[in-house]
């Protein structure tokens, strides 16, 4: 658990990759209850670079990128869902079915969505249904430009 530049928000690791190349690229993907801004990314990048330099020496050759998940990236951590309550969510379930609807609740165990079914020119919203994280293969926020 990291704290942002102001120290008032807990951030969490969503992804970490290290490329296998001559000049390794370390990519750190962080998120938090309110997202992650450019200033927080810069502060954390400087802190991590200092730690890497302390551990491996200042002559270590690498590039470091600290970022937040893009809007088109799937939600991969249960803590990411709460800030998207009220937004449209697209779920792909392990059984192959797909559900799209408004995220109405997020718990440590799963999410609740009001699924929207489109039939020709009519849309029907079903009562909220619960889906456990174990049943969700992929979840993405549906970006709307209305």
Automatic annotation (TrEMBL):
Matching entries from InterPro entries are given as: Ribosome_maturation_RimP, RimP_C, RimP_C_sf, RimP_N, RimP_N_sf
Q: What is the protein's given name?
A: Ribosome maturation factor RimP
Q: Where is the Ribosome maturation factor RimP C-terminal domain?
A: 75-145
Q: Which Pfam families match?
A: DUF150_C, RimP_N
BP GO terms, sorted: ribosomal small subunit assembly; translation
**What family classification does the UniProt entry report for this protein?**
Belongs to the RimP family.
> Sorted alphabetically, which keywords does the UniProt record give?
Cytoplasm, Ribosome biogenesis
- Reading the lineage from the top rank, the first entry is Bacteria
User: Which compartments is it annotated to reside in?
Assistant: Cytoplasm
Describe the task this protein carries out.
Required for maturation of 30S ribosomal subunits.
Domain Ribosome maturation factor RimP N-terminal positions: 10-72
GO cellular component terms, alphabetically, are: cytosol
């Amino acid at each position: 658990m990291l704290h942002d530049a102001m120290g008032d928000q807990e951030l969490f690791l969503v992804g970490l990759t290290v490329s296998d190349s001559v000049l390794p690229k370390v990519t750190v993907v962080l998120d938090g209850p309110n997202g992650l801004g450019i200033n927080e990314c810069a502060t954390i990048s400087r802190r991590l670079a200092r730690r890497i330099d302390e551990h491996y020496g200042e002559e270590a050759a690498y590039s470091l990128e600290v970022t937040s998940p893009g809007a088109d990236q799937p939600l991969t951590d249960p803590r990411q869902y709460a800030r998207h309550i009220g937004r449209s969510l697209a779920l792909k379930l392990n059984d192959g079915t797909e559900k799209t609807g408004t995220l109405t609740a997020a718990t440590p165990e799963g999410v609740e969505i009001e699924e929207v079914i489109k039939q020709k020119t009519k849309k029907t919203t079903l009562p909220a249904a619960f889906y456990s994280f174990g049943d969700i293969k992929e979840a993405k926020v549906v970006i709307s430009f209305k």
